[in-house]
């Protein structure tokens, strides 16, 4: 079945939800890509997202993998355009107007008001991912360790993710 | 990262002169390099490249553009590419910037996706991915903490954070409805007061 129109629709919609970061769209992404369209399973979605944190560039490039699975190379390209196009156009149009509104008092209100909501969306995305990613004491310990190390030291997050892959390999390999 | 902030600010005329000479090709290549090397988060690399190395924008512009990028939907990395590209060469500059920053990671994840599709169920890959996924959760939590320290203007904002989480995860209202409902409440809460000093003090 041709998935291209569905891919375009879903990722253009998800695009608009990424307020404050890609993770804000995660709960909706899970519902649409896993439950509704069944392009991949929930563990696969979590794996792709997590592996994507080691890739350079914008941290949601894992959407390309979903597009490729569902629709081949065309699917990958469609997803890329659908996911980054709408917000790019919005940024292009709004940024100019936004700069002109520097003196408008509500501009600060909007920025201050959106800050906690976008942090909340990020946290909500995090929790919905944790449901699949944290399955016991070991995975919980890895997450807490990464959090504490990042808060305490200046470490490249990509290295921590890589390190956790090694920890995972040593911990979860069937003996 | 922070060391760039310590450097003396450029004169506005100086960056303008440097920016005037930038070609579409240069924009594309610079963002392609950022897109290929920015492991573990794009923002510090953007600053190092655009402000310090190329001096296409000064630090004040960078911070201003970043705050716009954060308020708008879209990832910081791609929004910044659009804004900086637009400033340098208009629409073509934006397109060159966003293409450059997306291409390397996109191609990598294209290949990774194919590999994972075929070999993702090997025991050692499943084991490693379990660690990677747990680390990603820690990573997001760290972002939540650092954003909360940086961008919240009022202690009551934690209530809006909690409302957002409950609306999405417990009430299953969906992101759009939550965004509109809690967003409007939070914006009204931060209505323009006469003294906006609390934010400046930070």
Overall structural class of chain B, as computed from helix and strand content, comes to: mainly alpha
The succession of helices and strands of chain B, N to C, reads HHHHHHHHHH
Q: Round the Cα radius of gyration of chain B to an integer and report it.
A: 20 Å
Number of E-state strands of chain B: 0
- Mean model confidence by pLDDT of chain B: 86
For the terminal residues of chain A, how far apart are their CA atoms?
42 Å
Rounded mean pLDDT score of chain A: 92
Shape of chain B: flat
**Number of helix segments of chain A?**
7
Number of helical segments with 4 or more residues of chain B: 10
Biggest interface pair, counts: A-B, 110 and 102 residues
Shape of chain A: globular
**Low-confidence residue ranges of chain A:** none
How far the N terminus sits from the C terminus of chain B, by CA atoms, comes to 20 Å
């Amino acid at each position: 079945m041709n998935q291209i129109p569905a891919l375009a629709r879903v990722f253009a919609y998800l695009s608009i939800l990424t307020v404050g970061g890609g993770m804000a769209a995660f709960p909706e992404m899970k519902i649409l890509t896993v439950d509704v369209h069944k392009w991949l399973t929930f563990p696969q979605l979590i794996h792709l997202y997590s592996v994507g944190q080691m890739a350079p560039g914008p941290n949601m490039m894992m959407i390309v993998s979903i597009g490729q699975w569902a629709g081949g190379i065309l699917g990958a390209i469609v997803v890329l355009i659908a996911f980054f196009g709408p917000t790019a156009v919005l940024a292009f149009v709004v940024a100019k107007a936004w700069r002109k509104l520097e003196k408008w008092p509500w501009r600060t209100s909007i920025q201050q008001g959106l800050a906690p909501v976008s942090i909340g969306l990020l946290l909500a995305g995090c929790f919905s991912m944790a449901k699949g990613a944290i399955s016991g004491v070991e995975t919980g310990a890895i997450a807490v360790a990464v959090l504490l190390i990042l808060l305490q030291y200046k470490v490249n997050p990509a290295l921590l993710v890589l390190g956790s892959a090694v920890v995972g390999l040593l911990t979860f390999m069937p003996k | 990262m922070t060391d760039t902030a310590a450097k003396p600010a450029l004169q506005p005329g100086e960056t303008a002169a440097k920016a005037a000479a930038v070609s579409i090709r240069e924009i594309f290549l610079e963002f392609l390099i950022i897109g290929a090397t920015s492991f573990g988060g794009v923002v510090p690399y953007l600053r190092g490249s655009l402000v310090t190395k190329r001096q296409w924008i000064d630090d004040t512009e960078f911070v201003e553009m970043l705050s716009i990028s954060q308020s708008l939907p879209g990832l910081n990395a791609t929004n910044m590419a659009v804004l900086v590209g637009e400033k340098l060469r208009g629409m073509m500059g934006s397109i060159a910037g966003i293409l450059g920053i997306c291409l390397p990671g996109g191609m990598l994840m294209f290949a990774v996706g194919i590999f994972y599709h075929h070999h993702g169920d090997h025991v050692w890959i499943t084991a490693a991915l379990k660690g990677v996924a747990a680390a990603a959760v820690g990573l997001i939590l760290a972002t939540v903490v650092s954003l909360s320290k940086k961008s919240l203007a009022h202690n009551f904002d934690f209530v809006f954070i909690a409302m957002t989480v409950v609306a999405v995860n417990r009430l299953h209202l969906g992101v759009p409805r939550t965004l509109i409902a809690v967003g409007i409440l939070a914006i009204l809460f931060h209505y323009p007061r006469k003294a906006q000093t609390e934010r400046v003090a930070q």
